[in-house]
Amino acid sequence: MPALAHAIGLAVLAAALALVPLFGLNDFYLQILFTIGVNYLAAAGLNVLVGYAGQKSLGHAGLFAVGAYTAAIANIEWGLSPWLSLLLACGFGAIFGLVIAMPSVRVSGPSLAMVTIGFGIVVEKIVTEWTDIFKGQAGFYGISAPSIAGVSFTNLHWVWFVGALCIATHLMLRSLLAGRYGRAFLGVQMAEPAAQSVGISVVRAKTLAFVISAVTCALAGAVVAQQNQYFNSDFITFNLSIFLLVVVIFGGSGSLYGPLFGAVILTMLDAWLARWPALQHFTYGALLLFSLYLMPNGIAGAVSGFAARWRQGKVAAAAVAGHSALAASAATAGGEILVVKDLYKAYGGIVPVRTVSFAISAGKVHALIGPNGAGKTTLLNLLSGHVAPGSGSIRFEGQEIAGWPAHRVASLGIARTFQNLKLFGELSALDNVLLGAHRHIETGFVASLLGLPSSRQAEASARADALALLTDLGLGERAHEPAKGLPYGLQRRLEIARALASKPKLLLLDEPAAGLNPQETHELGEVIRRIQQAGVTVLLIEHHMDLVMGISQHVLVLDYGALIAEGRPEAIRQNPKVIAAYLGADDDTALTGDAA
Amino acid sequence: MTAFLQALASGLALGAIYGLIALGFNITYATTKTFNFGQGAFLVPGSLVGVSLLLLAAGKPHFGNLTQAEMTMTAYVLATIASVVVVGAIGIALYYCAIKPFVGAGGLNWVLSTIGFGIIMQNTALAIWGPASIAVPSPLGSEVWRIAGAGIRPQEVLIAVVAVAVMAVLDIVLRKTRFGKALRAVAFNPQAAAIVGINVETIVILAFVISSALAGLAGILIAPITTASVFIGLGIALKAFSAAIVGGLTSPRGCMLGGFLLGIVEALVGLWRAEMREITIFLLIIIVLVVRPSGLMGARSVEKI
Amino acid sequence: MDNRITRRTLGALLVSTGMALSLPALAQNEIKIGYNADQSASGAAELGLSGLYGFQAAIDDLNAQGGVLGRKVVGVVRDDAGAPPKSIQNMNELIDNEKVAAVVGPTNSGNALAWLHIPQQKKVPVISHVATATDITARYAKEPQNYIFRVSMVDREQLALLAAYAVKASKSKNIAIIADTTGYGQAATKDLQEILTLHGIKPVGIEKFGPKDTDMTSQLAKLKAAGADMIITGSLADATAQVLKSMEKMDYYPGLLSTWGSINTPLVNIAGPKLAEKTIFAASTTEDASDRAAALHKRLVAKHPNMPAFVSAAQGYDAVMLIAAAINQAGGTDGPKLQAALENLGAVQGIIKKYEKPFSKEQHEALGVADFHLAQWKDGRVVKLDDAVVKGLTAADLKR
Question: C146 and C140 in contact (C-beta within 8 Å)?
């Protein structure tokens, strides 16, 4: 949403909140406003987890409970002030967010649903059964509400307070999600291996999303307990977990405004339907059943569909001139940048890489060739850390990196592309490149959350650099289009752009010419030459021999997982072992022809 | 020792029920990567439809209570068939309303749509039968059989026998018959299956019919133990879901094994402290999944890079 | 979508909204009584629904006699689906929007506890017609005006009766407690422990089970091993029936004392008529206790053939009648005056009994231990228990 419209919207909301007393609303309506706010708080954080990081949780009632019980126990049992209790609730929420993240980040799909359901139920049972501490259904009575200047919160104050919390939460999440953290979450959701290849730790990103969602859910729980002055175990049910997820998905997960739509509509619907007791369950069921069919991306998706129609084509140009990563010419001296020794990997009986040793010298273009199934991609995956080796050593600039996770390898300056494209499809080309630059955008979490000037500046200069790089690679015109909408050839080039944005020392390209037409292949050769000129060492896997022979200075030949030859291109062309390997393979034209 | 046997017996009976429902989850998950999250609601008509038909046949209102004399084995078999057929047919509606629009779309929309379908079904049942539970006599009577001091109800034995028989038959069907092969083909690659002349949609619908029918069967099998009511489903279905995940959602035998395992563990934890059952079970499940993310017998999925 | 249908739906919506808006204006003269209870979502929904039938029947009867103070009585019904947030919201709506004179409800004690402060602060009397937790009427007992009343069993009272019987009847004085894990069961456990302490007895075992469990043999085995010869349960009828069935499995029959829920037919239906006779329970009224009860039962069953719990219906009915009497006495629906009237009622004819000054400043329970008796199922009917132990019970035995 454009900044001006956003500012106006916020001002209108704040004014409406300030004017609430003028409407003469009774406690019923104030309670509804309060509930909308609480549901928004919980859903806004959950949306970060579900919509951005792609982790579907069915157990957030457990985190709601953490907040509510912390607020209750801190105030009643430990005698802490309500304000302190609220803070403590957020803190405990964060801790329990970590607790649920630990098992959750290891699983996916239905198993993730199970782990989160399990967490929710365990919490529910603990607060129900462990009556010595949590008082079960009898509950905590007399939880104090916060007060300002000695005046304890009334329902009107609560609406104001929760409204303020919602606006603050919205602003922080808006700032956070627009920057590198939001992109990292989306990157993890859309293509984990690609996210790792640009230096994002998937585990840390998911954990962070769990913690964010836990804090807002816990805050929502704490606020409910304080406003109601009473809390018991009946509040915590599996249904609450489902409801929170419904608010997010019905509203539109992955959209900043989805939780707002969800919270407003579902809360009001619930209140409005109460007068027809028999009807409310049916309506709720029908809503779940049909609304997502009519609006697959929730209300926010439907609304933005409309909005997009008249906003088309309005794309802001970059205000600052950036530097293309390709322009940075820093030719490095020779020397071995990567040394591989006795690298070995087996999957059961299949051994795609058997004790391979070689060295890559800096500043050159190296090609890795071999017949189909020779183990080239596996070798590349071992180098990039996407697959852990069985044994052997990989030294990058003297540093042993064998067995390191992909994101740590990436952070040393090894970037890669993928044979089967792994772009962040829903994101724009620009965002893909910005994700590539992830580890260079030096913005702390807090700075990003609060939208501090330092973070905005870093973001703006990164955008300018990314645009410059895209323009440099002929993608400037299409920087704002979703990656999945680009023609295939441009998608391949975008992957290279993304990898370059991470300013690598070593670039691994996995069949960059696959599926390209001759013109595009020729252009690719030029790009690779420019990459080399920019001082980046390149290792490419390629079947396309014209390209290989034309641009590389050093060729490695892999067959059945073993290195059978290496040397200068013209020497490899003559090597009898290599010829035998290729003639033995299906594709006997490979060495001379231009097979893809 | 007697207490142990006692717990084992009821654990096996309940585990058989979990296994039946879990197997249903496996069959639909294999074909569409979805399953009915609202399966609990399908136990409700399973437990009530057949019984109500018997009541109507006996000239009583549909929400009354059957006497032991009216519940002969023939009557029970008829009621079971009626329940299974009706709930199986509801499975077709489920597919068209809640599954088909979302197959292959990714995301979690199908979870919410199936929950929505279940809510509508449960409340329809509430409108028809009311909230009270209806006692269902066992066709084998209410005498308790004693084995080594432990009392076992004939219905518990019946549940275990029927469930194991059904599982065995389905196991053979899934492995040996044309249908089973077609199902596996669809599971492996729907496009390829369509090319070789398999009617993919028919197979998928059949999968949902079987899955729903299994839930219906579970409903009427468990009714003499738990009574039939609108509220019996959720807890059982959640445990069945857990059983499927722990056993391995992609493995039919894993799902069945998971069911029995869960039933027995639950009963044994109950021997120690009944109120710790859920806490223990779900903590165990979380630990199992951390060690084996795709379940005990599930195929490990390796993403190709 | 078909345009015509859309327009018609829209029209219907407008009309109904218009009606909803205009109704309050027309209905200045009505007296509204709220009903807020679970009718759909949990096992206790059958009590909430039965209670609703009694509630509505009472309002029909009042209106048939020309209303209260010449004004028509209107019931405003909300379903809280057993969820505290919903229950709170309903309470706000009933009091602030609908401006009800009083509220009857809820079914789940936990829900009541979640919103008690709202009617108390807004000075609207509430009569709990199902929820039994002792705390409900006790929380504001020390306030100048306590707006929470009850026409239902009180856990403490019935448990006192059960405990007295258990202590007298037990030879070994090995008494045990088994209860479900809901708030109801756990509150009962707490109350029972305190009561037994007054008798100088420490229970030999305290066991729990889930409200939907069907096999309590492992818990009972522990109580058997502890030598319990009297077991008191805190659970609803279904679960008590399952306790009996588990006892049958183990062939272990200690004396089983159960709460008020056992009066409902599910106990017989699930446990079977023979096994059902093996529990002694605290009972108030049954459908054939009096002509009035029989008449109400007949009338309600004609309208709602699957009504499961007559006692709840009777209590819902009586709650409305007490409120109506108080409105008559107060000459209006002003909250504090109504509360005062409730505490100073004269005689009111109800279904369960004829109430003589049912409430006072100190006493907010319309039913007390004197209204309960110990009963047993016999040949499919509830009969009053009159054995030697009961005869030997004195007022001093009722420690509470």
Answer: yes
**pLDDT, tens digit (0-9, with 9 covering 90-100), for A310-347:** 544 444 444 567 778 777 555 556 789 999 999 999 98
Do A357 and A449 lie in one domain? The reply is no
Q: What is the pLDDT of residues C58-74, one digit of tens each?
A: 999 999 999 999 999 99
Q: What pLDDT digit, counting tens, does each position of C304-352 carry? A: 887 878 889 999 999 999 999 999 999 999 999 999 999 999 999 999 9
CA torsion sign for C20, C21, C27, C33 is positive
pTM of the model: 0.91
Handedness of CA A414, A418, A423, A429 (dihedral sign): positive
Q: Which of A472, A497, A522 delimits the end of a domain?
A: A497
Chain B residues near residue A387 by CB distance under 8 angstroms = 305
Q: How far is A65 from chain C (nearest CA, A)?
A: 14
Domains in chain C, CATH or no CATH each: 25-153+289-367 (3.40.50.2300), 155-283+372-397 (3.40.50.2300)
- Contact between A554 and A567 under an 8 Å Cβ cutoff? The reply is yes
Angle between helices A298-311 and A258-273 (to 10 degrees): 130
- How far A304 CA lies from chain B's nearest CA (Å)? 19
Identify the sign of the CA torsion A63, A68, A69, A70: positive
Two tokens, residue A223? 């606020």
- The complex's ipTM works out to 0.92
Quote the distance between the C-alpha of residue B122 and its chain's center: 16
Interface test with C, best of B2, B123, B133 (most C CBs within 10 A): B133
pLDDT at B143 over 90: no
Compute the distance between CA of residue C33 and CA of residue C126 in angstroms, rounded to an integer. Answer: 10
pLDDT tens digit string along A292-315? 888 888 889 888 877 665 544 444
Residues 6+ apart with CB under 8 A from A197: A384, A386, A406, A410, A415, A416, A418, A422, A499
Task: Show which residues on chain A lie within 8 Å of chain C, measured between beta carbons.
Answer: 26-29, 31-32, 35, 128-129, 131, 136-139, 141, 224, 228-235, 237, 239, 270-271, 274-275, 277-278, 280-281
* Short-list A259, A238, A221, CA closest to A38: A221
Angle between helix C45-64 and helix C291-303 axes, rounded to 10 deg: 110
Selection from A104-108, B80-84, C130-134, C270-274 with the highest mean pLDDT: B80-84
Domain residue ranges in chain B: 23-239
The answer to whether the CB of A480 falls within 8 A of the CB of A315 is yes
pLDDT of B301 above 80: no
Q: Smallest CA–CA separation between A443 and chain B, in Å?
A: 30
- Name the closest residue on chain A to residue B35, using Cα atoms: A110
H or E stretch including A562? strand A562-567
Chain B neighbours (≥3 Cβ pairs under 8 A) are A, C
The SS3 of residue C31 is: strand
3-state class (DSSP) for residue C300: helix
How many domains does chain A divide into? 3
Contact C186 A136 (CB under 8 A): yes
- Across the interface, do C249 and B68 touch by the CB < 8 Å criterion? no
Is A286 part of any domain?
no
Residue range B55-73, pLDDT digits in tens: 998 888 888 788 888 889 9
Q: What is the pLDDT of residues C128-149, one digit of tens each?
A: 999 888 889 999 999 999 999 9
For residues A374 and A394, membership in a common domain is answered with yes
Domain of residue A165: give its range. 25-240
Select the residue of B98, B105, B289 nearest A115 (Cβ to Cβ).
B289
Give chains near A: 3+ CB pairs under 8 A.
B, C
pLDDT for residue A1: 56
Chain C residue nearest residue B222, CA to CA: C214
